[in-house]
Amino acid sequence: MPSIFQSSASGSQIILVRFESATSGSRTSTLTITSNDTDEASCTVSLQGIALEPCVAPTVADPDLTISDVLATSATIDLANVTADHYLAVMTTTGSLSGNPVDGVNYIVGASIGGGTVVYNGAAANFSLSGLTESTEYTIFIFPYNDVACTDGPLYNTTVSIEDTFTTPVAPCIGGTETFSNLGSSSSTYTTRTWTGDNSVAWSATDARTDQDLTGDAIALRTGILTNTTPVSGGIGTLTFNYKRVFTGDSTMKVFVNGIQYGGDITVTSDVATVFSQAIDVPGPITIEIRNSVNRIIVDDLSWNCYETPDRPEIQLLDSEMAMKACGTFNVDLGDVLFGTNVDTTLSIENMGTQDLDISALTLSDAVNYTVVSPTVPFTVGSLATQAVVVRFNGTATGSLPATLTIESNDADEASCVVNFDANSQNKCTAPDTLSGSITTDNITSSSADVEITGVTADGYIAVISSTGSVTAPTNGIVYIVGDTIGTATVAYVGTDANFTLSGLDADTNYAVNVYAYNNAGCIGGPAYVDSAFETEVTTETAPWLMPQGHGQATTALHGRLQTPGQTRI
Q: Mapping DSSP to helix (H, G, I), strand (E, B) and coil, where does residue 327 land?
């Protein structure tokens, strides 16, 4: 634009000013407009701009990362000797990250980076972590970055690794109570109830009402479950609560801690308050469940004390995934096992006490089909130690073969601890004998045909059809459904009935029909299909001609070719 210009009456003119600084920093200037305006002959405009340089990643030479005040659910992080605009913290329980933050991308807490989770993003080099899980190993990675007074940020330093590992301790036991005083308004409607109870523990009760009292406010269960929905830290020693029948009819109550039942099934028959008290002795986070069925009970004054390591031998069973199991109700189901093969399974014996647990015998009720592979008895499990026990199933017969393993020890109240085993030994599936069998077809229409297989004993049959003449046999061990394709052919029937109907066929079409008998019941590896199919052909009728509306009623049906039902032997 020229420095001298003219704006017409009631007109306007745009003035373009460019800010272009050779160095970074704040710059100011003025623009003076001189004109023939009577009272504003000299008009001044103030100009200001900030020139920014491109962002660069922070320099990291000798970082000092400190992790302190590590508790069950929190920790404090302090990074020294690193100067940056901001700090991004990513944490993982796997020990490593598969990727780093990307330059120019801003991340928020909770975002995922390389398999880890962003736990902090801020200007302070020291910060606190919360919401951690007890007894868990974490690895934290710090990425300093610059994004202030520069362009194209943030730029992260990913060339120098700033990381450290820490493990949260087991949370201290707080014990607990639940008086049901926070249930809210009284209601006789059976529904799901949720509330925050004593000790800030979250609870829920299904099929429950809140208008019944015991020693005070109480929860009434019909066919429902009372449970804490957030696990309680510190374990459990003895669990105690009051209960009784309400209204009419008996019910069955069961108590579980961490999925294991304690105290057996309890038939509730009394309208008088009864005390349930059971030593549980389970460490770590715990979840309590009180399950009721059939009729109504009310529960009140639930409490538990802290778990303490027993000053005695204390047996605890663990399954193959190291989950706690109770003596007598620990069931190991090996499922279907091919006859003549061995299957090994492992369980563990843990000593939860402070004194040695002496195992004097491992006795199988069926020493023919089951064998204890290891260890050799007697043996000792030290305090808080674990011993694996390997049991082998080597079925010498077919059928269901249950057994029990009795573990004899010096545990005061579980000297004979029983584990239940079961396995179903089966032969390998073999194809049926079809030498004397035959196939016939009948009742052929424009869209269906009846098929009958005779002279064969089989668990099932699969019919495969093709209008191109090419049929591929099914593969042993694969279960097919109607509509599946095998090569260029289509599965038209699968079932146990030797008499069946092929439906959904196209009119006036010739089909190759192959029927394969198979066995798959009470055996392993099925279905086992015959190699040679029952083969025949079906030619469907031409669809009947229908008189268009308004032209009278057709009195004669026109039919095309009809294949005479025949019989084919294989």
A: coil
Predicted model pTM: 0.55
Question: Which tokens sit at 49?
Answer: 């701009």
Is residue 410 a contact partner of residue 312, using CB atoms and an 8 Å limit? no
Same domain for 358 and 323?
yes
> What span, in angstroms and rounded, lies between the C-alpha atoms of 276 and 267?
12
Q: Is residue 530 part of a domain?
A: yes
pLDDT band with cut points at 50, 70 and 90 for residue 1: low
Domain region containing 459: 438-539
| Chain segment 39-85, per-residue pLDDT in tens | 988 999 998 878 788 999 999 999 999 999 999 889 999 999 999 99
Question: ∠ CA 97-100-103 to the nearest 5 degrees?
Answer: 170
The answer to whether residues 259 and 150 belong to one domain is no
Q: Identify whether 40 is part of a domain.
A: no
Average pLDDT, the chain: 91
Q: How far apart are CA 337 and CA 370, in angstroms?
A: 13
Residues 402 and 495 occupy one common structural domain = no
Domain tally, the chain: 4
Q: What is the pLDDT of residues 223-240, one digit of tens each?
A: 999 999 988 877 888 999
Q: Please check whether residue 544 is in contact with residue 444, taking contact to mean a CB–CB distance below 8 angstroms.
A: no
Residues 249 and 200 in one domain: yes
